[in-house]
Amino acid sequence: MLVKDLIEQLGYMDPEAEVHFQYCYGDHWSTQVAPRVDRVDPGYIKFSDYHRMHAVADEDYDLDEETGQWEEGVTRVVLIG
Prior knowledge:
The structure is a single chain. Helix content is 15%, strand content 28%. It is an alpha+beta fold. A 3-stranded antiparallel β-sheet has the order 4-3-5, with no helix packed on it. A two-stranded antiparallel sheet has the order 1-2. The chain starts with a helix and ends with a strand.
């Protein structure tokens, strides 16, 4: 989803409603949990083979100190947390 798509979808919502992020907790019952969203920030992600999904990039490991450039495969995104 792009930011413009999110903005469009939010346009149909009650502007006074709280925002929560839904995901599967991973327990035996596949419980869907929904913690409250407290912030929206720009950030960087990269695909993690270990997790088999994107993970937040780490400046200590994924940013070249000499050039200040992110390693290949790091993408700028909007993070909701």
